[in-house]
Design brief:
The complex is a heterodimer of chains A (338) and B (325). With 338 residues, chain A is α/β, with parallel strands linked by helices. Chain A is 43% helix and 13% strand. In chain A, helix 3 (61-74) crosses helix 4, helix 4 (89-98) crosses helix 5 (119-133) and helix 5 crosses helix 7 (161-170). Chain A is globular and about 45 Å long. In chain B, the strands form 2 sheets. An 8-stranded parallel barrel of chain B has the order 3-4-5-6-7-8-9-10, surrounded by 5 helices. Chain B has a two-stranded antiparallel sheet with strand order 1-2. Classes of the chains: A alpha/beta (338), B alpha/beta (325).
C-alpha cells in the first residue's frame, strides 16, 4: 500500500473508530479468538491479523506498542508488515513491541518490495527487515504487490525474487514464503501456475470483490486446492468508503471477510486502540456467517460492486506503490498519455 | 501494395465483409460533412463494405453524416451497415425507440447489424439478460426485419464479454479491442476471440491502434504494423477510426491486397509490446474512465465524479437529451 492510500485508510479507520468512544479499561473480548490451520504448514494462526501499514500510521510509538501488546494478550498471533511501509517505521514499531520475549508468541510476516528487481536486492531487504523487526527469522516472507501483468515473468526470471525466497528458506531466515497483490486475479493465477511451492497467498477478500473481478471466485479455490494458506485483506476495501456511505457496516464487512470458507486469516488495518478493540470484539468467539447470510450480502451490494467504485485497488492506481511503477519503468499516473 | 481488400465471412451469417471497416466515431470527427462524405465514398470505391456507427456518437451526427453519404448513388445497398444501441442496462422499449431513431438518421429501413453498445460493467450481463432487458429488443428487431444480425460490443473486460457469450444468447457478432497490447494484457485475444470462433460468432476487431496515438507517439510500433497485426488475427473485420481522407488512404494501402503477417512476426510484435502493455498505459479503455461515457454510468445508477478529467471533458461534449442529471 502506498503512503497516499495509507492516508486514505487512516481517515476511514478513524471514522470507523469513532463509533466507539472512551479509552478507559481495555474490555476483554467475550471469548478467545479462534485459530485456524495455516495451509499445509502445520502452523495455527488467529483468524484476525494486524496490518502493518496502519500500525505505522499511529503517531505515538507508545500507543503502537500498546496495540500490539493488547492484540497479543487477546489471542492475536498474526502480524503483517512490509519492508516499504512508512520507510521502515512500521517494521521498527512492530520490532520494538515484540522485544522482551513476545517474538516467539507471534506468527511474524513481512514482505519484500523488489517490484521486479533481482534476488540480491531482495536479500538485502530481508536483512533490513530482520534487523528492524529484531529477530533472526520470519515466519512468513512474501513478495509484495504482484500487480502488473509482467510481474510473474519478472519474479520467475533467473535471478528474480523467487530465487531469494528459496534461498531465505534454505538459510532458515524464513519458515514460509508467499506473495501478495491487490489488482487482478489473473496475475495471481499466473503466479500460482508456475508451480513454485508457495506456502501462502494474500489477496483482497470482501463482499464487493465477491462479484467484481473476484479473487474469492477465481484465486481462493485454486489456493485451497494447492494447499496454500489464503490471507485475506481489505475487508473494508482499504478506504472504508462503503462504510462511510452506509452501504455496509464495518461489522458486517469484516464478518463477511472472516466467514469466507478456506481463508486462514484476515489482515485488518488497526491504527488505534479503539479500532483494535472493535475488531477484537468481532473476532472473539467468532461464528462465521451462514452461506445464506453471505449470499444475501453479496446480492445486496452487487449493483454497486459492478463498477469497481469501492475497490480502488483494482480500478485505479491509488493503491499502487509509486516506487513500484518507477522500478517497472512505468510513467506516473500524471504522465500517462491521456 | 495494391489489389482488392479481402472479403471474409461474417461468422455463420452467410454474408461477407471487407477485412477493413470504417469506424463511426471518427467519421463524426471529420471537419465537415463534405469531408465525411469523401471518406465514405473513397472507402467504398476502395473496397470497404463494412461501416460502424452508434446511436450516441456525437449526439447523432455520426449516424446522420453516414446516412446522408450512403443515400447518394445507391451506396446503402453496397455496404454492410452496423450501428449500436445505447440502453446501458435500461429497458428494451428504450432500445426500440433508439433503433427507430438510428434508422431515420441512417436513411434506411433496416440495419445489417445492430449491436448492444458498451458492455463494460460487471452487471451488464445481468441487465441485458433480465426480463424486459435489451436482448428482447434485439429479438423483436430481427423479427420485424429491422436488423438482420445482432451482437454486442465493449472495451473493458474480457470476463464480462465471456459472460455475455456464456449465458447462451445466439449472438451473430461480437466487437472488442484487438491489438498487440491487448494480446498480453487482460486479453480479449486470449480469452474471447477463441470462444467466438468456436461458436461461429463473427468477430469485429476494434482499436487496432489502441484508440489513442500513445504507442505511435512513443514509437513502440508504427500505424501500419498495428493495423496489420489486428487484421492478421482470425476476425471478420477490423474497425479503424479515420477522420481524414489521408488516414483512410494509409489504411487502404495496408488493406488492399492484404496478406497476413505470419505467426512469427505477430509473436515478435507481441514480445516488443509486452513490456509497455503490462501496466495498461496504452489501453486506457481498460484501465481508465477515458472511454466510458458518463451517460452509461448514469444509466447504471453509478456516480459521475465531475472532478474526474475524463468525465468533465465528456460531459461538456454531451448536449442531447441523454445528458446525465
Amino acid at each position: 500500500m502506498s503512503a497516499a492510500s495509507a492516508t486514505l485508510a487512516l481517515s476511514s479507520s478513524a471514522r470507523a473508530g469513532g463509533r466507539t468512544s472512551g479509552r478507559a479499561d481495555p474490555p476483554r473480548p467475550p471469548a478467545p479468538i479462534p485459530r485456524r490451520a495455516f495451509g499445509r504448514t502445520g502452523a495455527q494462526v488467529s483468524i484476525i491479523g494486524i496490518g502493518g501499514s496502519h500500525l505505522g500510521d499511529v503517531r505515538d510509538p507508545v500507543e503502537a506498542v500498546r496495540i500490539v501488546h493488547e492484540a497479543i494478550a487477546a489471542g492475536v498471533n498474526f502480524f503483517d508488515n512490509a519492508w516499504e511501509y512508512h520507510d521502515g517505521r512500521s517494521e521498527e514499531l512492530l520490532g520494538r513491541a515484540l522485544q522482551g520475549g513476545k517474538r516467539d508468541q507471534v506468527f511474524l510476516m513481512t514482505k519484500v518490495c523488489t517490484h521486479g528487481q533481482k534476488a540480491d536486492v531482495a536479500m538485502r531487504m530481508l536483512e533490513d527487515s530482520l534487523q528492524r523487526l529484531g529477530t533472526d527469522h520470519l515466519d512468513l516472507w512474501q513478495i509484495h504487490e504482484c500487480i502488473y501483468d509482467n510481474d510473474p515473468d519478472l519474479h520467475f526470471a533467473p535471478g528474480g525474487v523467487v530465487d531469494a525466497l528459496a534461498q531465505a528458506k534454505q538459510q532458515g531466515k524464513t519458515r514460509f514464503v508467499g506473495f501478495t497483490g491487490h489488482k487482478d486475479p489473473g496475475i495471481h493465477l499466473r503466479m500460482l501456475a508456475h508451480g513454485f511451492p508457495f506456502d501462502a497467498v494474500q489477496m483482497p477478500l470482501n463482499c464487493f470483490d465477491a462479484t467484481f473481478r473476484s479473487f474469492e471466485q477465481n484465486v481462493l479455490p485454486e489456493a485451497v486446492k494447492r494447499g496454500l494458506a489464503p490471507i485475506g485483506m481489505k475487508s473494508l476495501t482499504g478506504a472504508g468508503d462503503p462504510v462511510r456511505e452506509g452501504v455496509v457496516t464495518a461489522d458486517e464487512a469484516l464478518r463477511y471477510a472472516m466467514s469466507i470458507p478456506g481463508v486462514a486469516t484476515t489482515v485488518t488495518g488497526v491504527d488505534s486502540l479503539d479500532v483494535l478493540r472493535q475488531n477484537l470484539a468481532i473476532a472473539g468467539g467468532f461464528e462465521p456467517m451462514s452461506a445464506g447470510q453471505m449470499s444475501a450480502l453479496r446480492e445486496r451490494v452487487r449493483a454497486v460492486a459492478a463498477d469497481g467504485r469501492h475497490e480502488w485497488y483494482k480500478t485505479t492506481t491509488h493503491f499502487d506503490a509509486k516506487v513500484g511503477r518507477g522500478q517497472h519503468g512505468y510513467p506516473t499516473p500524471e504522465e500517462l498519455p491521456l | 501494395m495494391s489489389g482488392a481488400i479481402p472479403q471474409r465471412p461474417l461468422g455463420r451469417t452467410g454474408v461477407r465483409v471487407s477485412a477493413l471497416a470504417v469506424g463511426g466515431h471518427h467519421l463524426g470527427d471529420a471537419p465537415t460533412y463534405a469531408d465525411a462524405e469523401r471518406i465514405v465514398a473513397e472507402a467504398i470505391d476502395g473496397g470497404v463494405t463494412f461501416f460502424d456507427n452508434c446511436w450516441e456518437y456525437h449526439n447523432g451526427r455520426s449516424e446522420e453524416w453516414l446516412g446522408r453519404a450512403l443515400a447518394t448513388g445507391g451506396r446503402r445497398d453496397r455496404v454492410v451497415l452496423m450501428t449500436k444501441v445505447c440502453t446501458h442496462g435500461r429497458d428494451a422499449s428504450l432500445a426500440t425507440k433508439m433503433l427507430d431513431e438510428s434508422l431515420r438518421r441512417l436513411r434506411t429501413d433496416h440495419l445489417d447489424v445492430w449491436q448492444v453498445h458498451g458492455v463494460v460493467f460487471d452487471n451488464d450481463p445481468d441487465l441485458a439478460y433480465r426480463n424486459g432487458g435489451v436482448i428482447e429488443a434485439l429479438d423483436r428487431a430481427k423479427q420485424a426485419g429491422k436488423a438482420r444480425f445482432v451482437g454486442f460490443t465493449g472495451h473493458k473486460s474480457p470476463e464480462v464479454h465471456y459472460e455475455m457469450i456464456a449465458r447462451g444468447y445466439p449472438w451473430d457478432t461480437c466487437q472488442f479491442p484487438l491489438n498487440p497490447f491487448d494480446a498480453t494484457y487482460r486479453s480479449f485475444e486470449q480469452r474471447v476471440l477463441p470462444e467466438c470462433n468456436r461458436r461461429g460468432i463473427a468477430v469485429l476487431g476494434m482499436k487496432p491502434m489502441t484508440g489513442r496515438a500513445g504507442p505511435i507517439v512513443h514509437k513502440v510500433a508504427s500505424p501500419e504494423e498495428l493495423l496489420r497485426y489486428a487484421m492478421s488475427l482470425p476476425v471478420a473485420t477490423t474497425i479503424c477510426g479515420m477522420e481524414s481522407v489521408d488516414k483512410l488512404r494509409a489504411n487502404l494501402k495496408v488493406a488492399q491486397g492484404f496478406e497476413s503477417m505470419g505467426a512469427r512476426s505477430m509473436q515478435e510484435l507481441r514480445d516488443r509490446c509486452r513490456f509497455t502493455a503490462a501496466d495498461g498505459r496504452f489501453e486506457l479503455y481498460k484501465v481508465s474512465l477515458a472511454f466510458d461515457n458518463p451517460q452509461a454510468r448514469d444509466a447504471h445508477g453509478f456516480p459521475n465524479d465531475p472532478t474526474e478529467k475524463e468525465v468533465k471533458e465528456q460531459l461538456e461534449e454531451v448536449t442531447g437529451t441523454d445528458k446525465p442529471r
